[in-house]
Amino acid sequence: MLALRSGLTRGLAARTLAPQVCSSFATGPRQYDGTFYEFRTYCLKPSKMNEFLENAKKYMHLRTAYSELVGFWSVEFGGQMNKVFHIWKYDNFAHRTEVRKAVAKDKEWRQILISNLALIDEQENEITYLVPWCKLEKPAKEGVYELAIFQMKPGGPALWGDAFKRAINAHVDLGYSKLVGVFHTEYGALNRVHVLWWNESADSRAAGRHQSHEDPRVVAAVRESVNYLVSQQNMFLIPTPFSPLK
Known about the structure:
The protein is of the alpha+beta class. Helix content is 37%, strand content 31%. The chain has a single domain, classed as 2-Layer Sandwich (Alpha-Beta Plaits), CATH 3.30.70.100. A hairpin with a 4-residue loop joins strand 6 and strand 7. The radius of gyration is 19 Å and the shape is globular. One of its GO terms (biological process) is mitophagy. Residues 37-135, 145-244 form the NIPSNAP domain.
């Protein structure tokens, strides 16, 4: 089994990335490289949440032998309860295909997967790219996370990108929250942007939000971006003990 995983790792390292085509404010296939992030959301049976998380903690190393887990969280507030959210990173679509094939052949992981599927009510995934003006950040210490989801008007970043960037940077530059990443959906609900924030605690997040609402610089930037907004929602996320992002 270790030999299989080592061989896969060497094979993946030798991959040729997709051709690079640059654009000043493009997403999807016009990103600087093929790297994308798969968002997975699982709604669990109410009585099975703890069992699922214990299994994931014990056996996740089997799955992360094949591809990078960015973060794994339980959803504390926002939407359906008994829900987990996780992000996986891939170099390109060929990479994901190779990983999925290799994982399917791993008998040990497959056995764990079959038992865990009985604990899940619903599964959802989205394929996203980081917007070109943002890189994925890793907080220096443990905290809590907020995933804010913005449904934008059709037209893509060419229409709303500059205004949205100014609204995000207003919060970041003035220190109201720490930005982890801004993602634009490629597969899933189109014209959707996910913004992942980090805060030390739920209370520090609330305090920063109240202060930002009274800051005229933030208010002005946000007011411009809402002209392109259809709807928004958020989730408050608690990192699991085995999550790389703490």
